[in-house]
Amino acid sequence: MSHFRDSVPDVRHEDGSADPVDARLAARLAELRAERGWSLGELAERSGVSRSTLSRAERAETSPTAAVLNRLCAVYGRTMSRLLSEVETEPALLVRAAEQPVWEDRAAGFVRRSVSPPHPGLRGELVEGRLAAGADIAYDRPPVPGLEQHVWVLEGVLEITVQDVEHHLAAGDCLRMRVWGPTRFRCPGPEGARYALAVVLP
Fold it and tell me: Is the peptide bond before 118 cis (omega within 30 degrees of 0)?
């Protein structure tokens, strides 16, 4: 099996300490693997992510990219937002703008803000995504099969491919879909794109 090698280099601060969110994410990834009794090799086979990338991600030596996190979420049966929420404090009913968790895949030009993070008893969540001009992110599977998504473009242009069909979205357009297979989000430019993503568990 070919393994996916993708990570953002060194996520440590100048003093050598890891970014707090990345450190908690690394610890949670290690916990999830340990709970299942899997070795790094077994997880590599299940996810298609290289053993070295997994090892460095669990030690907070690298920050996993969106594509890598998506593969791990699929293996662990979680949405990306739910995994990220597990490394944050207990979510409040009211989420102030300054308190909304932000995660960045700098290598891919992708910024993800959890506007309405997952909450026990609720099936939906709201995410704000930003893609830099030229950014192109491919997900080989949904983290949860049959995941319902509504993508509303707020600024710029977004090209989304679902089941081999490409959809061209301009500002104000909305794409509704149930995700079973690969998807691709691309910002053709010349400006970046900003969009709202509503996610509903099946």
Answer: no
